[in-house]
Amino acid sequence: MNAFPPRPCSQPTSRTRAAAGFSLIELLGALTILTILAMALAPVMVREYDRHARERETKSLEALASGLRSHILRTRTIPSHNEYVQAVSTEIGMQTSDVLLNHRRLPRVLLIDPAVTNVIPIPYTQNFRGLTNSIPLSLGMVLVSSVSAPLPSGLVSGFASSSAAFNAIWSAAENTVPAGWSWSGRGEDLRIIRINLGTLFVPLALNYDTITMGAANRGRFTIDGSSTNTLPTTPTFISNYLISSVLGLHHHSGSTDTLQVQIVLQTPTSFTYQGSAWRGQAFLTRGASPTSALDLQTVHDYFVSSPDNNQAQGSPAITPEAVVDAVSEYMQAFVDWRDAGYPTRHRTLDDAQQNLDETTGDLLHHASNDGDDDGCDDDEDDCDDDGGGGDDDDDCDDHDDDNCDDDDWGNDEGCDDDGWGHWGGGGGGC
């Protein structure tokens, strides 16, 4: 028998009903409120998604255009509309399908102005002649895409139907539909990126100095390592080359070891071939224009191209090239002496100077009978320079006498070749 009687059942309170769940009426009310909110927010969310889609597509088209420009400048070629997809995908590392279609899987279009072919043959591969026609700055291509309705059915990659149709797209204001289009999409969903081909070229002018240049000694040039070429038109050749093309300017004698100037074309550039050297501007006189490396090159070219002296001494006979080598040897020895801090001992430099003196003397050698009837060659050791038959340097050969200093610069005599005195110092023996 239970100690306590059972408790009578009580009616459920509002609190117990709430704990059990929502009533159907309450649930319907909540869903109604959420539906109203969703309907109010849906247009805002759609517009936000479209805005992000437009921004994303703009950046994608800019990347494609940048890749196309990079491909053109790197390979010195401009691809056709059939080739650009592969060219761009290779250049920037994208799948070809991602070049053809945007992220909403709508096709993109590369459109080319038909007027381009009046100046640039498409596809184009640059050669040493470049493009001799004037290139308008507005000449180009457009990349077109939509993030809403598909583009008009007649708009496909390739040449536009006309320059007027192309210009309508090129000149369309942002977020507007180009004039003449019949299209269900909105202007703000249309993305257009312009590629200006005219800005990818730079003009180059090469000239000959017609006063001093003959037909046989006109300078040569190369583009991107091509074989050397004379100017296709003379005396002035003007052409356009893709930016970053490498221009080489050569001496007229040929292609081996004749390069005088090499530059990367970035801005409008001109050179004139004058006096066997390429110059950035015409050379007037030494007083009117400072000496440059090209001026030294010109002197060198004139010197080494001089006819050999058939009476020059040496075995083999000394030539202008040998003198140039001796000069180079002397200059290198001097630089080494300078770098060593101008030490009092300078035997290597002495030897280089002696070799230079002997080499130039042998090059200037004349026949033993020079027409003076004094029986002396101008270089004979026993004859003075005036043909008097006497040696004016006290029995000292200019270079080799063992009783004379190496250079015979007025030092006291009695020093052998190993005298280490300073240049021209005449004190105290050596």
- Helix-residue proportion: 25-40%
Tell me the β content.
5-15%
End-to-end distance: 147 Å
> Can you tell me the residue ranges where pLDDT is under 50 for at least 5 consecutive residues?
285-291, 367-430
Integer-rounded radius of gyration = 43 Å
The count of helical stretches stands at 8
The best one-word shape is elongated
Question: What do you see in this structure?
Answer:
Among the domains are: about 50-180 and about 185-195, no CATH class; about 200-305, Immunoglobulin-like (Sandwich), CATH 2.60.40; about 320-365, no CATH class. It is about 30% helix and about 15% strand. It has 8 helices and 13 strands. Strands 5-2-4-6 form a 4-stranded mixed β-sheet, sandwiched between helices. Strands 9-7-12-13 form a 4-stranded mixed β-sheet. A hairpin with an 8-residue loop joins strand 10 and strand 11 (about 260-265). Helix 7 (about 320-340) runs antiparallel to helix 8. The longest helix is centred in the first third of the chain and has 52 residues, at about 25-75. The protein starts with 13 loop residues before the first helix and ends in a 67-residue tail after the last helix.
Features:
13 strands; alpha+beta; Immunoglobulin-like; 30% helix; 430 residues; elongated
Short description:
By secondary structure, the protein is α+β, with helices and mostly antiparallel strands. It is built from 8 helices and 13 strands.
